[in-house]
Amino acid sequence: MTSTTLFRDLDYAPGSVGDIFRLIRAGEATSRSALARLSGLAPSTVSLRVDALVRLGLVSEGGDEQSRGGRRARSLEIGASSGYVGAMDVGANHVQVALADLAGNLIVVEDLPVAIDEGPDAAVETLWQGLTSLIERNDLDADLLLGVAIGLPAPIEYPSGRVILPSFMPSWHNADLPTLFAAHTDIPVLVENDANLIALAERSEDHPELDQLLAIKLGTRIGCGIVSAGRLHRGVGGAAGEISHTAVIGESTIPCVCGTANCLESVASGGAIVARLRLLGYDVRTASEVVELGRNGDARVLDILRSAGTSIGGVLSSIVNFFNPRDVVLGGAMSASAPLVAAIRAELFQRCLPLVANDLEVRAARRPGDAGVRGASQLILEEVLAPARIERRARDLDDATTRQSA
Ligand SMILES: [Zn+2]
Q1: Angstrom distance (rounded) from CA 351 to CA 173
Q2: Which of 238, 263, 323, 376 suits a disulfide with 245, CB 3.0-4.6 Å?
Q3: Stretch 376-395: mean pLDDT, rounded?
Q4: Is 349 exposed, middle or buried (0-12, 13-18, 19+ CB in 10 A)?
Q5: DSSP states of 321-337 as a string?
Q6: Which residues pair with 148 in a beta bridge?
Q7: Residue 397's pLDDT is what?
Q8: In CATH, which superfamily holds the domain spanning 206-365?
């Protein structure tokens, strides 16, 4: 049992230390005077709050900007060096591990050999070792690791983080990674669906509140993450976006746990395409190898890729008409296949309502290579920098100071 309390989606008290930190972090106010204007607090109260944040190392002040007319406001920013977080993106054939500072900048990204078919217990051991080794090799203080988020290509129950009926890794059903990680650490550990993490990474930096986007992960399996008005939409239990088991026309080549005879994932996912090509005698194992075969122009491979794209585009057109997003972002290894993406686009635009198609942009993820770990670092930063958690750290610091002076 972990002793960590999670603050996901918890509210903050207006004008509290946590609230002031939230305003600085969102870039809404970056000087003491701007904070006073925005919060309505007295300048002296704002200064007390900011001083507490500076003592905690969470906020740093830029140098004095002197001008002839008097001292100009010093700019406040997130103290990026007072801690960092871990981010992991676990796929069927690859694992990426990264560290990010408190401003969300990736410090280092590394690929790890992890065999997910060995099951969750062995995988957690390897992931934790990989993370601690990365911390050591980058000369970082292990005590400043504030939290970890892990993306998995599976439905993830919210808020528990349990893996529920993953389609291609049966031994992971009900896996409780936060509890397994608690044997190593008492920092918060969050587990999230991989497509949800791409959706988080693709939010716009300037005005995330305007984002209406769908992130489609085209890897060994197919996933979909939803951002509405800048926030991840998980549904009641975390299953929102599970489009992969929609029935489609086509023949399945891999068994699926969902019970639908020809679901999108068993017909058109990277795993399904690999299986179909292997039946035809091709020596191919991963989604990336399929993309490479497509690049070589093999007619049979192109045919299979186009047909998969048509199936995916057909399912997407229904949800795009329903949700009316601005962006449909394609990520994952299979999104590098031009013929697959062209077929998805063609089918999608052909079936979309004009009112939906007008504003619709179908595009590649901005940095597909590390979108998963970027999304994971954003997720865990929202947790470890949640106003309620900052509030508690400020109180603990106050208590410690009082005890020392007593
Ligand atoms: Zn299925």
Answers
A1: 36
A2: 263
A3: 94
A4: middle
A5: HHH--SEEEEESGGGG-
A6: 86, 189
A7: 87
A8: ATPase, nucleotide binding domain (3.30.420.40)
Residues 6 or more apart whose Cβ sits within 8 Å of residue 19: 12, 13, 39, 387
Which three-class secondary structure state does DSSP give residue 65?
Answer: strand
Tokens of residue 227, six digits: 């951002």
How remote is the CA of residue 80 from the centroid of ligand 1, in Å?
Answer: 43
Start-to-end CA span in the chain (Å)? 35
The Å distance, Cα 265 to ligand 1 centre, comes to: 6
Strand partners, 391: none
pLDDT band (50, 70, 90) for residue 1: very low
Q: Show the tokens assigned to 308.
A: 């998969």
| 81-198+371-384 and 206-365 share one fold | yes
Domain coordinates of the chain in residue numbers?
Answer: 17-80, 81-198+371-384, 206-365
Q: What is the pTM of this model?
A: 0.92
- 17-80 folds as Arc Repressor Mutant, subunit A (1.10.10)
**153 Cα to the center of ligand 1, angstroms:** 13
CA pair distance 219, 221, nearest whole angstrom = 5
**Cα 292 to ligand 1 centroid, rounded to whole Å:** 26
CA 85 / ligand 1 centre spacing (Å): 34
